[in-house]
Specification:
mainly beta; four-stranded mixed sheet; five-stranded antiparallel sheet; Immunoglobulin-like; about 375 residues; single chain
Amino acid sequence: MKHRRRILLAAALCVLSLPLFAGAATALEAEPLPAEPETTLVSEEPTTPVETEPTTEKPTTQEPTTEAPTESHSHTFGDWETTKRATAKKDGVRQRVCSVCGEAQKKTLPRVKSAKLHSAQRVYTGKKVKFPGVTVKDSAGKVLKKGKDYTVRTKNDKNVGVASVILTGKGNYKFTIVRNFRIIPQRTKVTKVIPSLTKATVKWNPVKQSSGYQIRLALDPDFTRGVSVRKVKDGKASSAALTGLKEKTTYYVMVRAFTTVKKKTLVAQWSKAVKFTTPTAAPHAIDGQLPKTARVSASYFDDAVFIGDSVSLGLSYYEAAADVLGSAQFLTAGSLGSGNALQPVSEKSVHPRYNGQKMKVEKAVADCGAKKVYIMLGMNDIGA
């Protein structure tokens, strides 16, 4: 009986040990038990077969892990955003973020390096002048866009003087830059040059907002020889006399306006150059007087008129007595000069009379129909 129980116990142990070796690479064969002599067992009590519970094989594979995968993935970045605006002194910063993992990429936003106006000056027009234009660049050479990256406004941009352009950063930029430009007087024009032996009278068109004019004289059209500049300190002037010239000499002249604002002189462009030549003195002439000619008859003066002051009035008395000036007419008055001859005619004014009526010299000459006019004025003008 004991031997039978041992055999049953060994068989059960073998059955229970099978699952432990199911996952082995090679199945192990159970070694045979040692043989025992056959013995007839007589049981006093009836035996009942031993019931064993069914066994279930356990899988040998490992459970899946819960650790995050370590392989890389494709980033999904959003738009670039400015986290620090660029200035005229320091760079800014831009970044974008991956929506999957939150990784951020950053890049530098270059600072503003230069702002250059397209023109340093504008010409006065009486209205606000046109903005001269500007180019703004960052330190990388990129041109910033007006309206997107900066705004523009002007100041003092109407009258002759110094105007300002104010640039203000916008969007990705934060700065304020001021650039100045000049508003200069308008360009004038030389209208006429009247030369004489050693001087010339230059006339020009006056311009608005002028403090005066500069007159430039030279001996060649390139203004490299005998150059001189003369100044007229009167913004309303329209002519000037050039003295110290040489006779029979060709000159070139140009004029420009200037304006003084806060001790700063702003000059206009030069007018176009005008050429003129001083005349040659007649033979034996003194200061341009005509030379002496042969004696003429008294009838030569029949269509002549003599204009002058009391000296010329006295000449009319001598002429009447000597009969040397033919039928010449006289428009004279005591103390008549070039100054009072231009004044309006009145009871107290100094004007000559023609046919008993006081009138201006130019009207009297036209009315008398003279062909030759002798003007002898100056003594009273010198006295004045």
